[in-house]
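Pipeline run #58 for the internal structure catalog. This entry was flagged by the ingest filter as a single-chain record with no existing model, so it goes straight to prediction. Upstream metadata was stripped on purpose; only the residue string is passed forward. Reviewer on rotation: M.T. Logging verbosity set to normal.
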Amino acid sequence: MKNYRCPWSGTDPLYITYHDTEWGIPLHDDKKLFEMLILEGVQAGLSWITVLRKRENYRKAFDNFNAEKIAQYNAKKISSLLKNEGIIRNRLKIEAAVTNAKAFLKVQKEFGSFNAYIWQFVNGKPIVNKRKTVKEIPPYTPESDAMSKDLKKRGFRFVGSTICYAFMQACGMVNDHETKCFRYTTK
């Protein structure tokens, strides 16, 4: 259907733009993959629209998701982030971003890129589902279970299977647009 979009995108223009231009589009840029991994972890226990509304603030506060810089954050920087009202001020999530930056850099070194590593969980190409309604979308899958387990083994935090599945959806590793959504494609 030409004008139909997945109903979760609601009526908020920010959410609609995210649905129409980002969600479910295969992402292969390491920096953007890192950003999405951090943001999906931040989202734990919150709504995605809350995180989307703060994304620009996160980009400023976290050096535009430069993993090399974030990996160097110290207690003073973490303390300043905890005072930043533009982001979600949760110590565990902020500390996890630093830990994850370090783990991300190790993965890049080992695999040549984070992209090469992360896309192996779907054999290098998107899984195209045929969901008729949002109710058919599971919270996690065997692939997100495997990703979560491996990320945790490598030292990543806030990467449970549900977070990993949301990451996979956001980064186009799985296509969970409803089949009648104008963004749904079988390519």
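catalog note: The chain has one domain: 7-175.
catalog note: The longest strand covers residues 127-128.
status: ready for reviewer M.T.
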